[in-house]
Design brief:
The chain has about 270 residues and is mainly α. Helix content is about 60%, strand content about 0%. Helix 2 packs across helix 15, helix 7 runs antiparallel to helix 8 and helix 11 packs across helix 13.
């Protein structure tokens, strides 16, 4: 899950000034964690403690109210009785990566991903975006190769994953929907040679950079293995201590270090 958080932090400075190149400093001095990280960590906290996704997302979200939430979500977050608002926004997908790391069957992953989404993003496209992201993380973690991931996710969810980053980049711009963010984020992973290359691909599309890189980063970490220590140490530097402690606890319980990519586990 550190891969997702790092992607968010790295992409945070390019949301307002889109980047159409892979040539940029990995950690800009103005980088910060955003709602993507805060809510990803909230989902991890729910998995660790057995609390409901709704309760932990409200708890963490309200603790960090200035993390950059969208208008509809902040109204949900601060409501006395938050209810789903039929959202297809990409917020359903950016927070779900812990599910792909924590659960061990396709059925569990899809069920739990849906549960993380429907508390707010109960539109079918919101649910689909969360499930596709979590399943991509799960398949990558289980040792599936990129072509298997491409075919599984593409066929199951109807996403066009046969494009390349270079084909998407010229016409792509800021998008807030799952259906226009999740496929592109997965392509950024599929088109990569390493974790860092995947994140650079995602940001270079010039869209909702922190969310794209958060989604891509989670899948890339599951596929390539633990993020480099230089990136992990930067995540620790940027996150408030309480959020880092939850992240560290989740990684201790659900660490996938030492897996062998050549040996499938499903």
């Amino acid at each position: 899950m550190i891969g997702a958080i790092a992607g968010d932090i790295i992409g945070s400075v390019y949301e307002a000034r889109p980047m159409k190149s892979k040539d940029f400093p990995l950690f800009d001095p103005h980088c910060t964690f955003t709602d993507d990280s805060a809510l990803t960590i909230a989902v991890a906290l729910a998995i660790l403690t057995g609390k409901s996704y709704r309760d932990t997302i409200l708890e963490i979200g309200r603790r960090y109210p200035h993390a950059g939430y969208g208008g509809s979500f902040i109204r949900w977050l601060m409501s006395d009785n938050p209810r789903p608002y039929n959202s297809w926004g990409n917020g359903a997908a950016m927070r779900v990566s812990p599910v792909g790391f924590a659960f061990d069957t396709v059925e569990e992953v899809l069920e739990q991903a849906r549960a993380t989404a429907v508390i707010s993003h109960d539109h079918p496209e919101g649910i689909k975006g969360a499930q596709a992201t979590a399943l991509a993380v799960f398949l990558a973690r289980k040792g599936h190769d990129k072509e298997e991931i491409r075919e599984n996710i593409g066929e199951r969810f109807g996403y066009d994953l046969r494009r390349s980053v270079d084909e998407i980049r010229p016409a792509y711009s800021f998008r807030i929907s799952c259906q226009e963010t999740v496929p592109e984020a997965i392509v950024a992973f599929l088109d990569s040679a390493s974790y860092e290359d995947a994140v650079r691909n995602a940001i270079s599309l010039g869209g909702d950079s922190d969310t794209l890189a958060c989604i891509t980063g989670g899948v890339a970490e599951a596929y390539y293995g633990p993020v480099p220590e230089r990136i992990r140490s930067k995540v620790r530097e940027y996150l408030p201590s309480p959020l880092w402690k939850i992240t560290e606890a989740f990684c201790r319980v659900y660490s996938r270090s030492g897996w062998n990519r050549n040996e499938k586990r499903i």
